[in-house]
Amino acid sequence: MKHFYKAICFTGPLVFLLLLQQGLLAQVKISGTVYDMTRTLVLPSVSVLSTSGVGTKTDSTGSYSLIVGEKDSIWFSYLNKPTPKFPVAGIVNPNAFDISLHVPVTELKEVRVVPRNYKQDSAQNRLDYAKAFNYKKPGIKLSSPEGGFGVGLDLDEFINMFNFQRNRRMAHFRDRLIQEEQDKAIDHRFTHALVKKLTGLNNEKLLDDYMKRYRPSYIFAMSASDYEFGEYIKLAYEEFRGR
């Protein structure tokens, strides 16, 4: 047992450096454009996901870019229709990994005219990015060997604990998704139309200034009653006028 602990103490720094080096060298940037089935229209807001939990969405031009591990696989999800997974190691040109989704033009037009609310977007985000939302920082766990005799280290958890880049990236990505959810929830309630109705403020420049200055917190926006929320807007406007 003493020799085992001496070996761990001696090889620990070396293992750490090797793991860190592998984490730095095994990153691949994948980018490209997502089209409809005719390859004539680009698709915005397509979820691009990976087995490691990294993800993004295509922009207004249908373009995407994300950095994943060389052993990861990526796939695309649009209108709750996921594609097969593509191993990163098998992608010949990672700088131009374009893909066409089986989405007809008529279906695209329908999606554009039917608005989504923040609750639907939030539910879809939770579904698409479940791995990121459910992510917990790894730690060392004890495991019992087969037969139930003795206690050992969970090797997978021990290795993950030293994968600093992945842990930090997953945590930041999860926090960003949660912040986006909260921002959409506030925007759903704190609207230009409501402020105009309660304050009579019609000057667009002043209205934008008011909206930025008195934007409520997520907790207040979700917990206040309609009466309380309306009174907040009115009182804030009185202060805004008296500046």
Which SSEs are present, and which pair or pack?
Layout: H1 2-25, E1 27-35, E2 47-50, E3 55-57, E4 63-69, E5 73-78, E6 81-82, E7 86-87, E8 99-100, H2 105-113, H3 118-128, H4 130-133, E9 142-143, E10 152-153, H5 155-161, H6 164-189, H7 192-199, H8 204-213, H9 218-223, H10 226-241
Parallel strand pairs: 1-8
Antiparallel strand pairs: 1-4, 2-3, 2-5, 5-6, 5-7, 9-10
Helix pairs in contact: 3-6
Structural features, described:
The termini are far apart. 50% of the residues lie in helices and 16% in strands. Among the domains are: 27-114, Immunoglobulin-like; 190-241, no CATH class. It contains 10 helices and 10 strands. With 243 residues, it is an alpha+beta fold. The radius of gyration is 25 Å and the shape is elongated. Helix 3 (118-128) runs antiparallel to helix 6. The strands form 3 sheets. Strands 2, 3, 5, 6 and 7 form a 5-stranded antiparallel sheet that branches. A 3-stranded mixed sheet has the order 4-1-8. A two-stranded antiparallel sheet has the order 9-10.
What is the compact description of this entry?
The chain has 243 residues and is of the alpha+beta class.
Stretches where pLDDT falls below 50 for ≥5 residues? Answer: 4-10, 109-115, 147-153
C-alpha Rg, in Å?
25 Å
Q: Which superfamily, in CATH terms, is the homologous superfamily of the domain at 27-114?
A: Carboxypeptidase-like, regulatory domain
| Total helical segments | 10
Reported by name, the CATH topology of the domain at 27-114 is Immunoglobulin-like
SSE run: HEEEEEEEEHHHEEHHHHHH
Number of DSSP strand runs = 10
- The top-level CATH class of the domain at 27-114 is Mainly Beta
The CATH architecture name of the domain at 27-114 reads Sandwich
